[in-house]
Amino acid sequence: MTIQWFPGHMTRARRQIEEKLKLIDVVFELLDARIPQSSRNPMIDEIVGGKPRLILLNKADLADAEQTTRWNKHFKAQGHETLAIDASNGTGVKDISGKVKELLREKIERQLSKGLKPRAARALIVGIPNVGKSTLINRLAGRNVAATGDRPGVTKGQQWIRTGSDIELLDTPGILWPRFEDPEVGNRLAATGAIKEEVLHIDEVACFVLKELAPRYGDVLSERYGLDSLPSSLPDLQSAIEVLEAIGRRRGCLAGGGHIDYEKAAGVLLRDLRSGKLGRITLEGPEEAMEPIGASE
Ligand code: G4P
After folding, report:
1. Residues 6+ apart with CB under 8 A from 83
2. Do both 78 and 171 map to the same domain?
């Protein structure tokens, strides 16, 4: 689902998260491991404030494992606890509980020293639409419980969901907006399917993807689409269009008169990318994360 975010939505979404923060011990900030920076909310540090936070790099099954390790190190260097997970299949999810204990160690020790039995840690999942919030809630709960209606400003009764471990989750996640004013971020969000491509031109998104992939994943492109002479860099739009045209020709994406149907060719490329048919691909490295978000505020 595509959400059109307006300033009013953002204010309401933020207020709702701030209300929920009062109830919880720890925030799970869900990012897309393929685009950890672009799937991050620009005001997250300000919104979460001093609450203990665990960054979860979700969809790690689709991301380049080497890049995911680099992103983990990057966030650790910024003082965050992180974990790569695949909420669909459950990989890494069982390690969340250990990370939460680390994050809340002081609090737990204080409770123990007072002779109190530590209660379950109360957690809130936050993230942009489509990052996998409901999938993770259902995975942690062991059944389908996540509230649907991924819309800013939709409030409903909140419930605590017990998980198999000592974590209780709020059933309604906090929905955040991405930094979509930046065209590169918009292209990355569209490439991974976080925003629907109608918002942007699908052939432009495909050209962006080709330019990004050619230097790092050129072999994968050449092999999948039988491209014999793919250059290691596509310096301009024209060179990317030529590759898209070659893909279209190989895949029979033809319009009338023997012309290539660029939109169809773009659809082939983006479907392959999103479904993992091109292999595990990350679209941005931590070198592109210029500064900790919020540092300039
Ligand atoms: P949201 O609540 O944050 O909006 O996201 P949701 O859980 O609905 O997940 C969005 C899509 O991402 C779903 O695809 C879901 O299966 C997929 N997904 C979530 N976590 C993972 C993961 O770790 N790995 C992979 N490969 N996929 C994941 P969908 O049901 O097919 O929906 P659609 O977006 O294709 O319509």
Report:
1. 54, 55, 56, 57, 72, 92, 95, 96, 99
2. yes
